[in-house]
Amino acid sequence: MSDSTWFVIAIVIYMAVMILIGYWSYLKTTKYDDYMLAGRGLNPFVAAMSAGASDMSGWLLMGLPGALYVSGMSELWIAIGLTIGAWANWMWTAPRLRSYTEVSKNSITLPSFFENRLRDRSRALRVISALIIIFFFTFYISSGMVAGGVYWESTFGGDYLTGMLVVAGVTVLYTFIGGFLAVSYTDVVQGSLMFFSLIIVPLVAYFTLANPSDIWSFASTHDYGPYTDGVGNPTYFSLISGVSVAAIIGNLAWGFGYFGQPHIVVRFMALRSPTEAKQGRRIGISWMLLCLIGATFTALISTVFFAQNPQFSITDTRSYESIFLDLARTLFHPLIAGLILTAVLAAIMSTMSSQLLVTASSLVEDLLKIVKRDGLSEKALLNLSRLAVIVLSIIAAAMAVSPSDSILNLVGFAWAGFGSAFGPIIIAMLYWKRLNSAGAIAGMVTGAVVSIAWGMSPLGDWLYEIVPGVLSATIAMVVVSLLTPAPSEEITREFETAARLSKIAVEKEDTEFSEVARQVDLP
């Protein structure tokens, strides 16, 4: 059989498993809350793997290795920033957000939590945050579809558009039928595939080199990839040479983005108990560290492997985001390679499905339910949520038909937007008693606008837009909150209840959540 046939067999097996999980989840999903948040029943392993898999996307196996391959170790500042940000997010956001969203009228989306937390009767806070989610996630989902098309081209030598539609179609199908439960459990399978593939591929590639120690010097003195002038990339192994302070700050600032990513923090809201955040943090950060190490060595080894083996080519010679795919395709038997290559598909699909579901929830829970004041039945809400998944996927696919930017840049735009608009607000929601709705709205709008404007201007080439976005949002939020009336006693009392609940849950992690809730008089 041809290589492509083996690849197809592997991918058909993988996609069949995803659809079966979706069908199983469909049978378990009978209520609207189940479809959106799995009834707050995720154990810490599933929550951690789901958060990691939905976070990393095709960026981990394609965008990051490509950036490291082209620019060198200076791109590691992104990975360093992300690791610190992910740890801090699990440490400080997860337990308190899980507690507070249940205390505050059992909120199941971020916009509904914002509104309930601050008792915003104008509905402006909920509507604006929902619109921000829809706007930025449309770009994020589109980046996943672009990655799907590049994947198809590299794996099968096929048509970009066909690949994009196939990958998007299967992702939409299991998200459509199974909701949050399907997304979370497919993420576990997908996260496991990503983990093992990122360990196996660079390890095998390393031992195929004639002189494996070359990886520590080759790129700085020899031609490879985009470097053809005979001197290679002299600053390849330096974290700081040839890199401005602004670039380092901008790359580290990717870590700020974690606090504002709806598709990640929603996993914290779905935990069975805030007491399980600690275990989730250990699992999630361990998985993340090992995956980032694997992606780094994929790039490092590729500088030598493809230069010394010119019979093997790199498919993407613009951004070099296909090097992981190309290594797997050349190193392994086609069936094994096909199974490994599904890791990239897993990364793409896990993120797309999470983003589709969160965006659909904003459309239905945070916009439609406001307009439809007389209420909708459980069945109607379920059907409308599924319809929203279809509509959003069509819009994102239209944007991805002729991509004008790299996967990393598309992801970076959306990541900065969410980090700027929501990051400071979420932290303040959980830890600042004085925050009010006027301050939250001011910070959210300022962060989003500054991030977009900065990123679209020449300033974006100098400093990543998340830095001015977060700073301006924080300043606007604090200033407006202090200049406007303080929150009511009801809001303050609820804040103190949520804080006590989170503190007891963290200190007594072996205690049942029902007992913790009883200690703070939570119904």
Brief digest:
With 523 residues, the chain is mostly helical.
Description of the molecule:
The chain is mainly alpha-helical. The chain has a single domain, classed as Sodium/glucose cotransporter (Up-down Bundle), CATH 1.20.1730. Helices cover 74% and strands 0% of the residues. The chain starts with a helix and ends with a helix.
How are the SSEs placed, and which strands pair?
Layout: H1 3-28, H2 32-37, H3 44-71, H4 76-103, H5 110-118, H6 124-156, H7 160-208, H8 245-252, H9 262-269, H10 277-308, H11 323-331, H12 334-371, H13 378-400, H14 407-431, H15 437-456, H16 466-483, H17 489-507, H18 513-519
Helix pairs in contact: 1-7, 1-12, 3-7, 3-9, 3-10, 3-12, 4-8, 4-9, 4-10, 4-17, 5-6, 6-7, 6-12, 6-13, 6-14, 6-15, 7-10, 7-11, 7-12, 7-13, 9-12, 11-12, 12-13, 14-15, 14-16, 15-16
CATH topology-level name: Sodium/glucose cotransporter
CATH architecture: Up-down Bundle
Task: Show unreliable segments.
Answer: none
Q: What would you give as the CATH superfamily?
A: Sodium/glucose cotransporter
Number of helices: 18
- As for the number of domains, it is 1
Helix content: over 70%
The profile of the biggest β sheet is: none
- Note the overall shape: globular
**SSE order, as H and E?**
HHHHHHHHHHHHHHHHHH
Number of strands: 0
- In what range is the share of β-strand residues? under 5%
Structural class by secondary-structure content: mainly alpha
Distance between the termini: 62 Å
